[in-house]
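BUG: 3D viewer hangs when loading the predicted structure for this chain

Environment: internal workstation, default settings.
Expected: structure renders.
Actual: progress bar stalls at 90%.

Input used:
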Amino acid sequence: MSHAGEGCASNLTEGFMDEISTQLKDVLVPYLSARELARLAATCRLFRTWASGARRVKLGIERAVHDADGADGADGADGADGAALAEDAWNPHGRLGEDAVICKKRTIKTRMRMYTLHPNPDGVLVEHEVQPGRAVMPHRTHLRVQLVRRGSGLVEEELYHDLYWKNGDWGAGEAVDDPKEVKFKIKHTLTSKRRPPAKFKLRFTLEVVRHGTEKHVHYRYETPEFLVLDPDAFKRADAKRKREAA
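Structure tokens produced before the viewer hung:
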């Protein structure tokens, strides 16, 4: 059996695998995530080249969610860890057992960014920031945030819709602007008001328009699922859980 760093454990010859690797890459890479590509690269050297050309631009969270007053989430993460992968940067307000929790009418602050995520030849995930090209029309680039039902994707609340960039425009030769800080609240929805009790996600959609075209390009990021609870109810439930665990 071949070692992971030398080849693939297979009853197929290495020559055969080399011959079909390109065809397999073309067929399969569009359906594989960066993490899946990283696992493949760590398993077999033939997969290490699959990451090239697979650096799809993604929308992600720059820093974790926290309170408007700066209070950290229940897990103690304040989102200041720049080393964290963007897709791991999401932090809920807290947890009840295994369930993440976002509190109703509690301000959520975050900032988005564009990046690529791909495995290097050693199978380690690497991030690269993506700056907007000069063809991007900043005054027509918008970010929308929606609360959606887990599973069905049904939109429960429209939470935010505004220009993506702070300034909303820049001229030739000017420095590219930074994305706005995004602030919003879940105002109406509660898990307990759905039958059966529902879980939700936040859906972030960036709409980009480029000069010389009316084509709208959409980039989307969705958080992991969570419960939406009343803040006081969450505090009581969390206190009860801690007493029972003591």
